Amino acid sequence: MPIMIDAVREIFGEDAAVKTSKMPHLNNIVHPRIEETSIDVKKQLKLSVGKSPFFYVQFDESVDVSGAAQLLCYIKYEGEEEIEERMLFFLALPGRTTGECLFLAMIDKVHFFEFEWNKCVAICTDGAAAMTGKHVGFVKRILELAPNAKWIHSMNHRYALAVKPLPGDLMSVMEVCVSIVNYIKTSSLKTRIFKELCSEL
Prior knowledge:
This protein has 201 residues and is α/β, with parallel strands linked by helices. The chain has 3 domains: 51 residues; 114 residues, 2-Layer Sandwich (Nucleotidyltransferase, domain 5); 34 residues, no CATH class. It contains 9 helices and 5 strands; from the N terminus they run αααβββαβααβααα. The chain has a 5-stranded mixed beta sheet. α4 packs across α6. It is globular.
């Protein structure tokens, strides 16, 4: 249950986390509340994106250390006061990861949101062949739905490509930095402590 309290704190704030911590921890009570919260968050996101005059989607297909393929999608849209970014979905891919398979999985996942694809202004992915293939790639299929959108190569992947030819001295510094970040991100407690330390600097 502590992980759910952390999730509620992150999404709804400290007051909601305190209320959540006081809930009875019985599965037949907690499970329906988690389901209701999930449905409510999706409905709110659907309304917010629907009101926005445009939106932008970013996809990343990857394989984890166990060999499982995954598709992650973020969406950016115009909120009431600023541009907002939310995770739209995270999906485990059971079979092949061709552009067509990725597209069909994505369509199935976003069906609930009833996007007006003509309001999509950009699609961001890495440069993998399944994503950017010119005949049946994932991006090509989305561009058929979203004629006003432009494809953008992910900045994170550009950075990763840019640092590959680093000289030895800089590469060793980069490796230390990456290992520190990975260590901090291994637990929510370490992340919170690091965040507090940074705010005090």
